[in-house]
Amino acid sequence: MTLWDDRVWALFRSQWKQTVIYWSVFFSFGLCIAFLGPTILDLRCQTHSTLQQITWVFFSQQLFLLLGSSVGGIFKRTLLFSLVALFTCTFIISLVFLLIPLCYSVIMLSIVLAIAGLAMGVIDNVANLQLVKLYQKDSAIFLQALHFFIGLGALVSPLVADPFLSDDACILAANATVFNSSFNLEHIRNTLAGPGAALTNMSEYPLHIHGMALTQVSYAFWIMALISLPVPIAVLYLMYHERLLPCSRTSPPLLEQNPSGDTEQVSLAHKNVFRCCNLDKVRDRPATFFVLQIVGGAILFITDGIIGSYAGFVYTYAVSPPLLMAHKTAGYLDSIFWAAITLSRLAFIYLSYRYPAPKLLIFSLIGVVLIHGLLLLFYTSQMFLFIGTTILGLCISSVFPSMLAFTEDALEYKGCATTVLVTSASTGEMLMQLLIGSVIQDYGSYAFMLCCMIASFLGFCLFLLFLYVHHLHKNSYSHSTDCTKDMDMKKIPPSLAGS
Predict the structure, then answer these.
(1) d(CA 408, CA 142)
(2) Which fold has domain 11-271?
(3) What is the pTM of this model?
(4) Are the CB atoms for 420 and 296 separated by under 8 Å?
């Protein structure tokens, strides 16, 4: 048995340049999404801000990422618009890495990260849709690879930053030259892990905000700028290759081809991405067409929300009663979680080829529910928290790409589902962290795992509803198709019908 059959390999070979560049764009996305957590204390010193103030930069980035996901659809009408948007956004990300060391106030830093978040949201929307349009029924395989590169970027970013992080207080105060060793900087870094950290009481860590900033984190951002710079250059090359630049238009622009070679159909698909959202067409769509998008968006709202919340609060959960895990040991949980997600997406590239998306989704969502139930049951076991964190990452990693491929396939690649699903996932990642963070503040750390358990069970129930609506949608579509054929037959004159 070979890993790929000749048909899938032929698909990739015919579109490999676009595909590889979309993957590299998502690697840049991953770099940008993961650097804040490790560098947050050094950025606090650079901006001379309090811990409470600096945590709001997470919220700034996430809010504008959501906005970028929502408005990214305006760039999808043609391949030219899409590639211009990807070039601009990847260039902005490289520029942001250069500008961050020059931000000496938290307001300036928040503005720069808001711009980065906007670019990331557009990338998330456009790259997903372009791969779906390229591969259609085979898109699940390539979407899994696309999201693997997010995880790869998210793993590389902290590794680049780590050698340049401060080991002690990075602000030299005039009246205190020795850092208070009772504060564990690694503990504070792990506590400030996402938007929900803004709800945490930081008054117990009275770090200095006045004095000389002593930090070398600027080198980390310059290295990440160099790593991400080839990505916009690659997008520019693709635009040149597709003859979309003025300097390359010595001959007509290349038409995009789908696997069957039907260039006209794919060209129209890119130019009419919004035809499913056209108000004039709403009457022609069955209600199930819109219900599928809403329920699919709700599923990703929950599952991406669980990913963000788990990564953000598993450390706090581990160091709190009853586990009371050592700070250094608990710090590995987040890295293990993201490593499991990344490796799982690599494995699901092959699994998506072997098994249909509904089976993978059933397996993944049942696994997420079961592992949360076991984590609640063995809530005093430090060893099982590590095991459960690994299994949770393995199970939940494939939900987004599989759900996106399945929904677009159910709606026959009309294009609107991608925008809805990407925006819903971004919304869930931001809001669920804030919601769960608030619950932890009010009811303690045990409420964290209980919230995740309830959310995962709701996600599984919603998927069962999705399957039922999908069944209704197929039946209604078949019925409408039969009615259309009957109407066409009635229009044929009897003299011609017999012939």
Answers:
(1) 14
(2) Growth Hormone; Chain: A; (1.20.1250)
(3) 0.84
(4) yes
